[in-house]
Amino acid sequence: MPIDYSAAENFIWSAARLVDRHRYILLFADGPAQPVIDALPGYRSPDGGFGHALEPDLRSPGSQPAPTLHALEILNEAGAADSEMARDARAFIASIAAPDGGIPFVLPGFEKYPHAPWWSGLQPEPGSFLTLALAAVLHAGGVNSDDWLDRATSWSWRSIETTEQPGGYWLKYACAFLDAVPDAEQARAAIASLATRVGPAAVVPVGGVEGEALRPLDLSPRRGSRSRGLVSETQVEAHLDAVESGQQEDGGWMFDWLAWSPAQTTDWRGTVTIRALTWLRDNGRLSRQRTTMKTPSRDGLGYPSIVEVMAAPRSEKRDPADGAPADPVRTETQSIESSAEPDDVVALLVDLRRVPDWAPAFADTVVGDARAGWRASKDGREFAVRVAVNKDAGTVDYLREVSPGREGGAYLRAVPRPGGGTVIVMTLPLLPDVDPADLAATLTVELSALAELLTRSS
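The chain above was modelled as a monomer; its predicted structure follows.
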């Protein structure tokens, strides 16, 4: 049953938190990432962690693992996994970790503030499923040099190997970890092992209110991910049907756990509405519906609506200050198919040291890492390269400063292919002094080399 997208968008504007409204613009209207990042400091504590009800069920001001996890997830969406804010959040997580890397479910100090009843009476534990969750989000953000992450990754592998009766949220975050961890072969073996410990319905009750459970898309939200080995296509399609039919009369979606306060309910509904739209989009249910939207072409902040973004030529860059198109920038986009899975494609792309192997026109050598930064060299000239990666969306952008305050570069996307494998899409800008035919030829050669490298690496 098609959703009412116009009503969903109106719900976001009328009820969602500021950070979620900016996330919506970023994720669904091709909007800027910086407003998302700028909305987070209000939830941040001096120690680098996050609180202040960023996790709506825990409304204390002090830093806690759960809201810090959510902040890192948002920073990943915004391509800011290696920002100063993200590094400070990682430092907070490391400061509360047990020697083996385990992270507790909650820290003392929240008790006198409003919170959901399930936070009360918890016994302190050195490690919880949030260890899996936080390790997953760091791996998904491309972090590859972090002492706590090394310990947490070892903790997570041990937990996956030894947990015989997985609970709902443990399973959700184990799947997230296995989707993101670089060792694809070990991850797929672990998924196969988990399949023997999970019921055939792929619906995992979590306790709480009647009907509260984690379902196929909670466990494996993206096509082409490793965790899809845990659920069937029939189960996923049935869950997507349920998501479509779950839209409320006000245009938003409702969660299935306890609604215990008006603020908590409103905060969560904005978040789960974006989650529902993301599930539908990433699983092929949303693109068919966008042309029916009836939103204004431009709001008072100068952001384009989804309809406008889809209708505008991709070569046209818009200036949000006045709503007028700026100088046109032409691009060349090509694609190639590979038998490699999307997660493996992204894992290769985020390692810039491999770029000269398939894109020598971009760089002769690349040194560095995601934490310290990357430096490329071409024809004896060195330049810094920033990688903006969103593993959930399958996007990897190679960016360098092309003029003061302005970045440009190569934009890649790994799109799951029905039946397995990946369609790799790459876009390059056409500079004024470059022949379009030459750029197209270069792009063809680079994509072919990338596909061949993926075949050799598999």
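Residues 5-291 form a domain with the Glycosyltransferase fold (CATH 1.50.10).
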